[in-house]
Amino acid sequence: MTNSVCPCRLLEEKKIPYTKCCAPFHLKEKQASNPEELMRARYSAFSKGDINFLMETLHPSKRSDVEESDLREWAENSTWTGLEIVKATNSTVEFKAHYEMKNEQYIHHELSEFRKEENILYFYDGKLQQGPVVRTSPKVGRNDPCSCGSGKKFKKCCNA
Fold first, then answer.
1. Distance between CA 96 and CA 74 in Å, rounded?
2. N-term to C-term CA, the chain
3. How far apart are CA 74 and CA 92, in angstroms?
């Protein structure tokens, strides 16, 4: 356990150490009292590869729908770079999870639903929030000169 900034707080001005933020949830010293706390703890669990925590905080009725190996692969093959909480209510959290995979930057934008069962809060379901696709580079047409500088058309060079 280090005194480093909690993964769920990397993008925020107020940096909180992992030991004072999500670690108590991961160590079962504390239970999440609201959806935002649980969302932050789950994001940090992805960042730290704590698949057991992710499965334990998944609603019992949903566990058979999730492959533990898929969670593990996503968690371990991604570099988690920050969490943005867009909006939190008493049963939902809209968030953007920033991560990098294979040198590509991604934002997972989701509206998550949380439910209590026997006074324990669980992640129940999530719906991807699709916004407009924004290009990070100009569109290159098939007949445009290739951006690699070869002098060939894109369709005969890097698009081949």
1. 16
2. 49
3. 23
DSSP state of 87: E
Q: Distance from CA of residue 71 to its chain's centroid?
A: 11
Which CA distances in Å does 90 have to 22, 45, 124?
Answer: 19, 21, 13
Contact in structure between 8 and 21 (CB atoms under 8 Å): yes
Output the tens digit of pLDDT for each of the chain's 160 residues.
457 999 999 999 999 999 999 999 999 999 999 999 999 999 999 999 999 999 999 999 999 999 999 999 999 999 999 999 999 999 999 999 999 998 899 999 999 999 999 999 999 999 998 765 555 556 667 677 777 777 777 677 776 6
Q: CA 50, CA 32: separation in Å to the nearest integer?
A: 16
Tell the residue number behind the tokens 């509206």, with chain if given.
Answer: 111
| Amino acid of residue 6 | C
For residue 107, what are its two tokens?
Answer: 């934002």
Please report, as a single letter, which amino acid is at residue 43.
Y
Task: Please identify which residue in the block is written with the tokens 């334990």.
Answer: 56
